[in-house]
């Protein structure tokens, strides 16, 4: 029997591969020679003090900035929700969600978008302009993307818990668990642990 038959994920390439990744910013070395492979079902919690380089790493993974050296390989698609999600104030919650999906090449129907607003508790706010949302509601509006159909396999979430109440934190953790159960994976930053059912891998930056 082959090793791949015993450990199924070895049969597939990793969803995310970081090889000898180096990043300097503002004259500081944030990480040096970082190697990482993320496979189906992996949830990776990136930890570190303020300024350690967590957001910088997530932006590298998404191809939004270039490493000083090394390589980032994403096998299929990814979904990035930034620390400050770029919501347009003049759009309604529903318009924003459908527009974000379309820009990502995953256009969705109004019914699908409304269904994604239900778990984040924003169905009643669907027609409301985003300028009138609270911080927590803005975070929920951005996170609704995780409930759309055809989500990409790799999720990259920067501080997804910011401004969320306890109930929404639990709902997000359940969504992450289910995504991993279905063979997806995620990289997230957070200053607090998420109440996840699945085991979490962790990477601590700023300790060199
Ligand atoms: N545009 C930039 N130009 C130069 N240096 C930058 C830039 N953006 C961030 N930095 C620096 O890179 C370092 C890492 O920043 P980063 O935002 O990745 O940290 P972080 O771990 O996400 O912090 P936090 O927990 O506060 O969000 C910091 O020292 C920061 O000052």
Automatic annotation (TrEMBL):
Keywords: ATP-binding, Cell membrane, Cytochrome c-type biogenesis, Membrane, Nucleotide-binding, Translocase, Transport
Organism domain of life: Bacteria
Statement: the UniProt record of this protein carries the keyword Membrane: yes
A GO molecular function held by the record: ATP binding
Keyword Transport carried by entry: yes
Positions of the ABC transporter domain: 16-208
Pfam families: ABC_tran (PF00005)
Protein name: Heme ABC exporter ATP-binding protein CcmA
């Amino acid at each position: 029997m082959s090793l791949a038959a015993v450990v199924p994920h070895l049969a597939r390439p990793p969803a995310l591969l970081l090889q000898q990744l180096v990043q300097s910013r503002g004259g500081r070395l944030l990480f040096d020679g970082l190697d990482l492979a993320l496979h189906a079902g992996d949830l990776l919690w990136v930890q570190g003090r303020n300024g350690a380089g967590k957001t910088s790493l997530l932006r590298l993974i998404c191809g939004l900035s270039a490493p000083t050296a090394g390589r980032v390989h994403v096998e299929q698609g990814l979904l990035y929700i930034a620390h400050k999600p770029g919501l347009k104030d003049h759009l309604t919650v529903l318009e924003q969600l459908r527009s974000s999906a379309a820009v990502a090449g995953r256009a969705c129907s109004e019914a699908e978008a409304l269904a994604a607003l239900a778990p984040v508790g924003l169905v009643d706010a669907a027609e409301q302009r985003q300028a009138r949302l609270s911080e927590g509601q803005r975070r929920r509006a951005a996170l609704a993307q995780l409930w759309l159909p055809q989500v990409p396999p790799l999720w990259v979430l920067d501080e997804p818990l910011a401004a969320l109440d306890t109930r929404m934190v639990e709902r997000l953790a359940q969504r992450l668990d289910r995504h991993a159960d279905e063979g997806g994976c995620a990289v997230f930053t957070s200053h607090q642990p998420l109440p996840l059912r699945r085991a979490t891998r962790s990477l601590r930056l700023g300790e060199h």
